Amino acid sequence: MADVFGKERSALHRLAAQSTSRPYYRPLSPRGAEVGIDGRTVVMAGCNDYLGLSADPRVTEAAARALRRYGVSCSGSRVLNGTLALHEELEGRLAAFVGGEAALVTTTGFQANLALAALLDERDAVFADMSNHASLVDAVRLGGAAHHRYRHRDLGHLGRLLAASESASESASDPGRGRGRLIVTDGMFSMEGDLCPLPGIVELARRHGARLVVDGAHDIGLLGAGGRGVTEHFGLTGEVDLVTGTLSKCFGSVGGMLIGPASVVEHLRHSARSVLFSAAMPPPSAAAALASLDIIESEPERRRRVFGHARRLLAGLRSLGWDTGDSTTPVVPVYVGDSRLCLRVWQELLDAGVFTNAVVAPAVARNRALIRVTPQAIHTDDHITRVLDAFARVRRGLGRLLPAPGGPGRTEAVVA
Ligand SMILES: Cc1ncc(COP(=O)(O)O)c(C=O)c1O
C-alpha cells in the first residue's frame, strides 16, 4: 500500500544528501556584514538585508520596546484578537510610502502573496512571468485560475498570451461572464536580479483590460530615489493595481504587505485565508518595520552605498570571467549551470572566507544553478574586495570546469 511518508526524496534533498558541501540549513551567528560559521568568521555576502537594518540599534531598540510592552506574540489572527495599533500605524505608513489608498500587513511576504488567491477563481486567467517567486505560483494554484506563464521578461510572449485569451474570453464554466484577467510579476527578480519591464507590462494590461499585481519584495526600500520600489524607479507610481511586498528584506524584519485600493484591501482582509487563519505579525516585528521605514525615508545614502557595491561586484566578476546574466541590481547572480558544480563553488567560496547562497532547482531551472551574491549597505569596500578575491581564487582553482560567459549558464530557462 502506498505510504505518504514513503515519497521519493526531492531533487534538492538528494543533491544535499549526496554532496560533501552543506550549503543549506547551516546555523550562522551573529548576523551582520560578517558572520560566524563552524567557528570561523567570514564575509556575509548572502543576505537580503540590503540596507543592513536588521541589527541597526534604532531598529533593535524599537523591537525591544515593543517586546517589553506587548510581549512576544499576539497569539491570534488579526481578525479576532491579533490587531494592535502598531499594525494599523504600519499599514498607514506603508500605504503612504508605496503610494496606495490602503495597506494590509501580513505575517510574512509569502502569506501576502498567497492572499491574492482570494481575488481569483476558476473562471479567471493569470499571466505570470516564468521566474516569479514560488508564493505567486502557489497563489494562482490556490485560486484555481488558469495559469499562463510567459517567458522571463518577454513582452511579446505576454502580449500573445493575452491576445489569445481574448478570443477565448468567455468563461467555460460560466457563459456570459467574461474571464477576469490578471498579470502578476516580481518587480525585481529574486534570483536573476533583473527588473520586470514595467512600462511595457502596464501598457499591455491597459490594452487588454487586465489587472496588474507587482511583487515588490526585493525592490521596496531599495529602488527609486525615495526607495518606493520598482514603480517609482520607472515613474509609474499609482499605475499598478496592487503591490505586494515583504518586510524581511530591506526592512530587516519579518512580515508582508499588500497595498492598493481600499475596497480591494478590505476584501482581502475579510477573505484571504492566509490572513484570516494565521497568527498576526508579532509586535517586535511590526515595531522594527516602523523604525526601519523611518531610516529608509531619511537615509537615501544607504541605497547609494549598496548600489555602489553592486556595480563594483558586477564589473569585477565579469572581468574575472564570471557570468552575471542581466542583473543591474544588488542581487548579483553568478551562473554556474550545473547544480553539483554550484555546490562545489559555494564550498570553495566559503573556504576562501565568503558566505554566499547556492541556488539550484526548484528555485531556478535545472540547468541554471547559480551562486547569489547580495551586498549590503553595511559592507565596507574591503568586504567587497574580499568577495572578489574569493571568486578570483575559485576561478583559478576550478578553471575549465566552469562555464565561460555565454556558456551553459546562459541558456534560456526551462521552467517546469
Ligand atoms: C519575490 C519574493 N516574494 C515573496 C517572498 C516571500 O517573503 P517572506 O520571506 O516575507 O515570506 C520572497 C522571499 O524570499 C521573495 O523573494
TrEMBL record:
<dbReference type="InterPro" id="IPR015422">
    <property type="entry name" value="PyrdxlP-dep_Trfase_small"/>
</dbReference>
<dbReference type="InterPro" id="IPR015421">
    <property type="entry name" value="PyrdxlP-dep_Trfase_major"/>
</dbReference>
<dbReference type="InterPro" id="IPR015424">
    <property type="entry name" value="PyrdxlP-dep_Trfase"/>
</dbReference>
<keyword id="KW-0808">Transferase</keyword>
<feature type="domain" description="Aminotransferase class I/classII large">
    <location>
        <begin position="46"/>
        <end position="391"/>
    </location>
</feature>
<protein>
    <recommendedName>
        <fullName>8-amino-7-oxononanoate synthase</fullName>
        <ecNumber>2.3.1.47</ecNumber>
    </recommendedName>
</protein>
<dbReference type="InterPro" id="IPR050087">
    <property type="entry name" value="AON_synthase_class-II"/>
</dbReference>
<dbReference type="Pfam" id="PF00155">
    <property type="entry name" value="Aminotran_1_2"/>
</dbReference>
<dbReference type="GO" id="GO:0030170">
    <property type="term" value="F:pyridoxal phosphate binding"/>
</dbReference>
<dbReference type="InterPro" id="IPR004839">
    <property type="entry name" value="Aminotransferase_I/II_large"/>
</dbReference>
<dbReference type="GO" id="GO:0008710">
    <property type="term" value="F:8-amino-7-oxononanoate synthase activity"/>
</dbReference>
